[in-house]
Amino acid sequence: MTIRWGIVSAGKISHDFVNAFNSFPDVGDQVIAAVAARDKSRANEFAKIHKIPKVFGSYNEMANSDAIDVAYIGALNPDHYELSKLFLESGKHVLCEKPICLNYKETESLFNIAKSKNLFLMEAVWSRFAPCYIALEKEIQSGKLGDIQFVEVNFGVPIENVDRLRKKDMGGSAILDIGIYTLQFAQFIFKEEPIKVTAVGDLNSDGVDLVETIILEYSGNRRAVLNVNSKILLWNKATVYGTQGRITVEDPFHFPDTLVHPDGTVEKFTLHTSPLKYNFGNSAGLVFQTLEVTRCIKQGLNESPRMSRKESLLLVKLRDTVRKQLGVHFDVDDKEF
What we know:
Layout: E1 3-8, H1 12-23, E2 30-36, H2 40-50, E3 54-56, H3 59-63, E4 70-73, H4 80-89, E5 93-97, H5 104-117, E6 121-124, H6 131-141, E7 148-156, H7 163-166, H8 174-177, H9 179-190, E8 196-203, E9 209-218, E10 222-229, E11 238-242, E12 245-249, E13 258-260, E14 266-268, H10 287-298, H11 309-326
Parallel strand pairs: 1-2, 1-4, 2-3, 4-5, 5-6, 7-10
Antiparallel strand pairs: 7-11, 8-9, 9-10, 11-12, 12-13, 13-14
């Protein structure tokens, strides 16, 4: 059975997603079957660029059609909940861009809907499927680093004036935009809920967080320090320290192509090329999560073990905690689901 993807929105990340898919040497038994946007002219142009056979002028129309099996939600943060809900309730599997929702209540509601419908739902934390992350995990499991004690992660890019980050009504937030990558890395390493979260940072005039430093404390006096900054460029690498050595995921750590092993050996991971330009760095790696989604659906799994329901709920709980400590409040935080 061929898995048919529907692309929900025709923006920059959707372009990169489809471009990565179309240029990958072997995606297996899956295809990009349709695209939908609120402005059909944009959807038509997107379909022309990416050679997508079917175009819809509304999300409802695509959700209610039998042209797709799984929807990729590439819309803005505040639309993630309603669009994911629409496609789940229409019987479609969903891969939703990170952050899957603005808060815990929305996220829990979505997963409950997916469970009731027996459908696959995953937050698109594409980092988890990077070949470099898989190699990192194997190195840690080998015991070469000894007992992991400390994780340090930096993610800083000067995007404070980008609307999707600076405007609250667009779901703007450094912790939701780039900070999620630092949180997921710490959780990828420690694989347990922190016993304490401490966050300090700066907000803009709209009450949106632009900068934060987060300390996560785990059992056994283990810690992670995460620096998130939308004002300046940082050295965006992640280092894991154990009792017998360290291992570094080089910049850009959120989808890296370089791993420095404890003995100093440098391992490279080459991404495939594309004739079309990408909007974001190393976006070729977006294809690896599609391989996982298709694998899970074909095996009758409603979640991926590498990016599970439990993991997304814990990540959104941590994001909520950071926002609360910094004083970042969305209107949706007052709603019940």
